[in-house]
Amino acid sequence: MKRYFRISGLLVVLAFCCMSLHAEKGIVTKTRFGTGEDSIQCAVSLSLFNTFYRAQDYASTLVQYRKLAAECPYCSKNLFIRGIAIYKSFIEAETDQARRDAYIDTLMTAYDNLSLYGDRFVGEEKLDDMIQYKNDTSYYDEIYAAIKACREQLGEASSSKLIGREFLYSVEMAKAGKMTVDELLDSYAALTAFVQAKLDEELFSEEWGTIKAYLDQLLSQSGLTDCESLVKLYEPQFEANQNDEVFLNRMLELLKRQKCTDSDLFMKATEKQYALNPTPEAAYNMAVSFLRKGNNDKAIEYLNNLVKLDEASADIKADSYVLLGKLYLDRQNYEGARTMGQNALRNKANYGEAYILIGDAYVMGSKKCGDSDFDQRRVYWAAVDKYEQARRDPDPETAAKAAQRVRDYSNQYPRKADAFFRNISEGDEVTINCWFTEKTKARFSD
Asked: How many CB atoms lie within 10 A of CB 157?
């Protein structure tokens, strides 16, 4: 029967040559094997570790691993590279949660030991596994601390992935009440400044531009920041960076997302943005600013000019048409509002806000569609059709707004008794001929 393993003759020689009355472990001397008899033991254990590992006898391998990690962690970098691989396989296979947690803790320690070999990027590898195996709210403090430590160690070499993770867990910490909103905004300011510095270097600009948008999205969707907090954050930055077009664009976009367009800061920044570079986006912001000031005529002027610009994107044109439509609604120009909604849909298919605009025009203009209550209420059939289309918009706020209108105006459909005398039944296809023409289906409130 073959021996399971063979200890090389070299180890026998070492056993005689390295004897010493004074023995110290490698963890004390910070050398590969230590000194004296301890050095022999470490060398033998490392040989056994490698032998068992190659034989895929991982249970025996781990016996030697634990001894080596405790007594001579400097003996071999491969000790921890292989140990990490073994523990990850154990974690994946383990069903008992207590044992699985113990394996995870040992895996994290293995990464810490691997960092002794001077590879400063080990921290990011550790984070990958920490987030995979410990991504539970109870571990957020530990994950966030590890991210911070990793970024402090890497400094300017920090990756865009690491920056994104830091702010993601900043948001999660704030949601859990473990970080104040002011601390969250401080984190946002520091991380966006880091990202902007990378963009200024014009290296990997697409990568860092993507992470900048990700940070803005995380903040705007966190539900943690209000206009007062954002204005407080940005006012001193605006004074220092008001001639920086990139900064202005980013700040105004975030203020718009958070519905902070009523602030004096938004208006001042908009005027500065347009003066620096009168782009379609700057023109749109000017229109919003004039609208907030109550100067609707000036807002309409900017919007009408904007939609004629060849360089304006389809999205900015769609937003402009919707805003024009809302202004037309205020002036009871329902046909004009409908036309603006249709123009918006030509630029941005399935745009929920455009469908809501058309539905609102039908509802508000229903009094022009006949003298009877029935004729006016049946317009709601066509309006709800538009709201139903708006409910499919991927933006949750738009979809919720549309859903509320569906509920409101479904309850105001005509009654079956009134339809009976007009020979109209549930589900009949009907055509509404009014200041607009739409085919729809009959529905009733009772």
From this structure: 10
